[in-house]
Amino acid sequence: MILKAAILKKISVVRVEDVEEGPLSIEDVHEPRIEPGQVLVKVSVCGVCYTDIDIIEGRVQCNLPVILGHQIVGEIVDIGKDVDNVNIGDRVGIAWIAHTCGKCFYCRSNQENLCENFKATGCHVNGGYAEYTVAFKNYVYPLPKNVDNERVAPLLCAGAVGYRALKLTNIVDGLRLGLFGFGSSAHIIIQIARKLYPSSDIYVFTRSPQHQELARRLGADWVGHPYEDPPKKIDRAIDFTPVGEIIPRALEVLNRGGRLVINVIRKQTPIELDYVKHLWMEKEVKSVANVSRKDVMEFLKLVEKLGVDVEVQRYNFDEVNKALRDLKAARVVGSPVLRIS
Ligand SMILES: [Zn+2]
Ligand SMILES: [Zn+2]
């Protein structure tokens, strides 16, 4: 069977102005073969993530040529030998974590997101910008029944990795939380944080007037430009932005003993820190790398229980390049998703 796929063939810069060509080329390819222990998934929706731009522009290394896309929602249409945990017809999600070795120190100590042989979906193996994709049987997830396919896709990376970042802040109810940047991930995480930590004030720092408006609508206690001074200092912070300068800025408004978690895979500009101004008084900075299967499962269950309103901007499959340009230019409000079939 021949199917349509959006392929990354060479590293290039995602242009933000409206152009006709690239960076991905939509082509006809053969249906992927499943090996023992794998499942074939007919893709319904795939979320578009800023990490795709990091891969396309070469900040994150991938195996070229590759089909991008790691927030995949679809239906299992075939199973390989030795697959006994899922069935044909199951509605499943596939996330960034495509495979881990299960043998290294990190895998054995409940930190598979740090696996030395971590394989990422739509980066080291083909992902979901295609009508069909393949996944390992233990790396697909049942999905919350109360969220439709378009809204569930962004939960698989923006949501799940954002949730990992929120956990890494070590927040407890009552501590003030600051979110820097308010795109796909932050607009989901604010809703979870609101419900898990009802006494915590949440401040949102973003330049975009559209993103500021969405933050207000989703219950932020204060919204402002990243360089505006908030009413009070914050105790915990998550930085969702691709620029380096936000890290010192977030640390400036962080209370003593506070912690900043950086929820991006790469920064596009340098980070300059002054020890006294930014780190003194036991302020901490931590990155978040990848996601474990436990994070994804825990998060999806939490969404089923608490409910989350995911704001999506829909694109047809052949508009994939436009979706990437819009995302880079911050023209997307909420989460961009591709309707594949
Ligand atoms: Zn992602
Ligand atoms: Zn491992």
CATH superfamily of the largest domain: Medium-chain alcohol dehydrogenases, catalytic domain
Tally the structural domains. Answer: 2
Q: Ends: how far apart? A: 16 Å
SSE topology string: EEEHEEEEHEEEHHEHEHEEHEHEHEHE
Percent in strands: 25-35%
CATH class of the largest domain equals Alpha Beta
Outline the low-pLDDT stretches. none
Average pLDDT number: 97
Descriptive notes:
- The chain has 341 residues and is an alpha/beta fold.
- The protein has 2 domains: 2-156 and 291-339, Alpha-Beta Complex (Quinone Oxidoreductase, Chain A, domain 1), CATH 3.90.180.10; 160-287, 3-Layer(aba) Sandwich (Rossmann fold).
- It has 10 helices and 18 strands.
- The chain has helices spanning 50-56, 105-108, 149-152, 158-168, 184-196, 209-217, 246-252, 275-279, 293-306, 320-328; strands at residues 2-8, 25-30, 38-47, 66-67, 72-79, 91-94, 97-99, 119-120, 132-136, 141-142, 177-180, 202-205, 222-224, 234-239, 254-262, 284-287, 312-316, 335-339.
- The strands form 4 sheets. Strands 3, 5, 6, 9, 10, 17 and 18 form a 7-stranded mixed β-sheet that branches. A 6-stranded parallel β-sheet has the order 13-12-11-14-15-16, sandwiched between helices.
- The longest helix has 14 residues, at 293-306.
- The chain is globular, with a radius of gyration of 20 Å.
- The two termini are 16 Å apart.
- The model has no long low-confidence stretch (mean pLDDT 97).
- The structure holds zinc ion (2 copies).
- The site of one zinc ion has 5 residues, from loops.
